[in-house]
UniProtKB/TrEMBL annotation:
InterPro entries assigned to the protein according to its UniProt record, in alphabetical order: Beta-lactam/transpept-like, Glutaminase
Key word Hydrolase present: yes
Keywords annotated in UniProt: Acetylation, Hydrolase
Protein's gene: glsA
Name of the featured protein: Glutaminase
The protein's Enzyme Commission number: 3.5.1.2
One biological process term in Gene Ontology: glutamate biosynthetic process
First-tier enzyme category under EC: hydrolase
Catalytic activity: L-glutamine + H2O = L-glutamate + NH4(+)
Assembly information from the UniProt record: Homotetramer.
Short name of one Pfam family: Glutaminase
Length: 340
């Protein structure tokens, strides 16, 4: 497979910065005001307790890599992190085992199918395909260091808390509700076991995964976690180095390809940034070298992605100039006359 790590060649990073603080502040408020009235989508109900979420909640937060925080709406309301945890557990596992090993074991390519697809596993000879779909996330969680599931869970909670810069707590009600109904994830773990793709007790791996999905975060937490990935692995609020810059680069590439499941291509085409959604309505987006964006709004599109979260992020990507694929023609008067 392709490997961009060329021996003896330093990794360069893209440059650029956000507009001034006050402008970002008013644009974050505008991203909220412009989309507040939208009622499209539906709250997830396949995990019973999620159906009780208040659909009107809507928060947006941008955290810059210098630690500056911009908030709008319900940015401090807590919800369960759900699938967004997959990005950070992947980062922790990648930090432990390295770029190539995890890419080989779990994969990096999009399935084009739903997050909890069983067919995707069968179509790919039991390979989990990528760490953002449930098969790959379960295989990744099973790789977490720890002699027991409790030790793995503690390492995950500690690691995700370091990304957020505060102690994240388990939402017991969400955990119990999902643990009582996650028969499909148990089936996926058993299927991975049958293909020799999981190195632990599969049902214990499902339990640790269910706990990681039940950690409580806010849009502000998501923005700080995203800003840590944008900042070469250093949490810009606490100053703690959580993972290496290489792990951030790998994580963001995985998010760009797979973060919004079968909608990942559409998302990249429209927003041009790595992102990750969760079924309780959270949405994390990262502008490498610039900022993390956290959004929360429980109504989802059919693929399980927050509708207003996507709209607010699309607006911010455009007005803040974040799309990584966007460029402008160089001014003719400044063109180089150097010929090699
Ligand atoms: O595996 C599940 O069903 C959930 N705990 C997480 C799913 C999820 O967030 C999918 N995202 N859009």
């Amino acid at each position: 497979m392709l490997d961009s790590n060329v021996e003896g060649v330093e990794q360069s990073v893209s440059t650029g910065s956000l507009p001034g603080w006050e402008q970002v502040d008013s644009l974050v408020v505008a991203s909220h005001t412009r989309n507040r009235a939208c009622q499209d989508g539906a709250v997830a109900d396949y995990i019973p307790v999620l159906a009780q979420a208040d659909p009107e909640l809507f928060g947006v937060c941008v955290v810059e890599v210098d630690g500056g925080v911009h908030l709008a709406g319900d940015a401090d309301v807590e919800f369960s992190i759900q699938s967004i945890s997959k990005a950070f557990v992947y980062a922790l596992v990648c930090e432990e085992f390295g770029h190539a090993a995890v890419a080989d074991l779990v994969g990096v390519n999009n399935t084009g199918l739903a997050f909890n697809s069983v067919i995707a596993i069968e179509l790919n000879d039991g390979h989990p395909m990528n760490p953002m779909v449930n098969a790959g996330a379960l295989a990744t969680t099973a790789l977490m260091p720890g002699a027991t599931p409790d030790e793995q869970w503690n390492a995950i909670r500690k690691g995700l808390s370091a990304f957020a810069g505060r102690e994240l707590e388990l939402d017991q009600e969400v955990y119990r509700s999902e643990a009582a109904t996650n028969t499909r994830n148990r089936a996926i773990a058993r299927l991975l076991e049958s293909y020799g793709r999981i190195n632990r007790d599969p049902l214990e791996a499902v339990d640790v995964y269910t706990k990681q999905c039940s950690l409580r975060v806010s849009a502000r937490d998501l923005a700080i976690m995203g800003a840590t990935l944008a900042d070469g692995g250093v949490n810009p609020v606490t100053g703690q180095s959580v993972v290496s810059a290489e792990v951030c680069r790998d994580t963001l590439a995985i998010l760009a390809a797979n973060g919004l499941y079968e909608r990942s291509g559409e998302w990249l085409f429209e927003i041009g940034l790595p992102g990750k959604s969760g079924v309780s309505g959270g949405l994390l987006t990262v502008s490498p070298g610039k900022a993390g964006i956290g959004a929360f709004s429980p109504r989802l599109d059919p693929a399980g992605n927050s509708v207003r979260g996507q709209q607010a992020t699309a607006y911010l990507s455009r007005v803040l100039g974040l799309n990584i694929f966007a460029s402008q023609a160089y001014a003719p008067s400044e063109r180089s006359t150097n010929v090699h």
